[in-house]
Amino acid sequence: MEASTKSQVMLRAFDSRNFRLYYTGQAISLIGTSMTQVATSWLVYRLTDSAWLLGLVGFASQIPTLVLIPLGGIVADRTNRYRILTVAQILGMLQSLALTWLALNGTINVWQIALVGVFQGIINAFDIPTRQAFLPETVSKENLGNAIALYSSLVSVSVMLGPAIAGILIAAIGSGACFLIDTISYIAVIFALLAMRLAPKKAVISTRKPLEELRASFIYAFGFLPLRSVLIGSALVCCVWAFYLALGPIFATDVLDGGPNTFGFLMTASGMGTLAGGIYLSRHKSVLELGKVLAFGTALMGVSLIIFALSHILWLSLLSLLVAGFGFILQIISGRTVLQLLVTDENRGQITGLYVMASTGAVPIGNLVAGALATSIGATNTVILGASICIVGSLLFMQQISIFRDMVRLNLRADRS
């Protein structure tokens, strides 16, 4: 009976039909997306044998998201989010189809990969903030924290399964097979969106200009300690996590003397860690204690990545990445939960856009910095440097943890009244 009750608590967001559809569609699509990410990184490194170009291509695919995502957040508040998501998925499928055609024809080169990545980055600038702002529309508010944890666990599963499948396919057939599966996986999301039953919802009508709205949202977010802490902390861990993602092929080949399967194992290990973290937080109910979780996750990720960088033994590298993934997702899920509970629906898209700009937008910067630093000081020292900054950031945040908790408590009380 007790086990059944715990299971119901962990899966309570699935009571919503729309959330079940959304979750199922994303489950299929995200595996394809993670396969493409691994296949792209491996293909670029195989074509160029350059850490700099590996980081540069990652930067090119992410920089449009960083630049355009504030606009994407405003559009998410002013336009029907459901329609934006549907159009974005169709465009993403066409982008993946182009990558598949180039790879299977054997004509693909690094600049084509970068160009297609730029197009996907533009799509993501509108898709990502809309997707995160849309999630609360699929579930009741009391189950929102659980829905965020379950969705983040789904991302973790995709990061775990996708790379493992990709490593096998790349070694056996080639990167083109991964791109083809990703193209097909978009169909699941599109069907899931079309099957949803959503209550009519009017978009917010604003008389302010987009730049005025963006400025107001920026001032509000960075003037409120809990949101400011979430934004800065997410930017930090995502930037450093990008060091590991960008330089993963180098650790797999040059440090651990492996191949694409080894790279897939590394990605799977970190994915298992994020999955475990998501499951842990799906049972976590106390919003007021999320500040401690933010700090602990950041520090844990930093320490684990230092161990990974120094390791030359596969099992130790896998274990350290599993723990690093656990710490990483603790910070990410906690930050997203705090943000979604503190913002209003009228500015949810804009604040979410700022969050995505701080987190996802930090990835291209991390890719570029990782490539540049690895060229001059080596991949090992680059990851150690980034991980050390995470530890310092966690210690600084701990000094404000009591203020963080008190401000979250006051905001939640005002919202209920």
Taken from the alpha-carbon principal axes, the silhouette is globular
**What pattern of helices and strands is seen along the backbone?**
HHHHHHHHHHHHHHHH
Query: How much helicity do the residues have?
Result: over 70%
Distance between the termini: 36 Å
**Major sheet summary line:** none
Cα radius of gyration in angstroms:
20 Å
The average pLDDT is 81
Q: Determine the number of helices (DSSP H or I, runs of at least 4 residues).
A: 16
The strand count comes to: 0
Which spans of ≥5 residues are poorly predicted at pLDDT below 50? none
Concise description?
With 417 residues, the protein is mainly α. 84% of the residues lie in helices and 0% in strands.
Overall description:
This protein is mostly helical. It is built from 16 helices and no strands. Helix 4 packs antiparallel against helix 5. The longest helix has 32 residues, at 17-48. The radius of gyration is 20 Å and the shape is globular. The relative contact order is 0.16.
Keywords:
globular, mainly alpha, 417 residues
Topology overview:
Elements: H1 2-10, H2 17-48, H3 51-78, H4 81-104, H5 110-134, H6 144-172, H7 175-194, H8 210-223, H9 225-255, H10 260-282, H11 290-310, H12 314-342, H13 348-359, H14 362-377, H15 379-398, H16 401-416
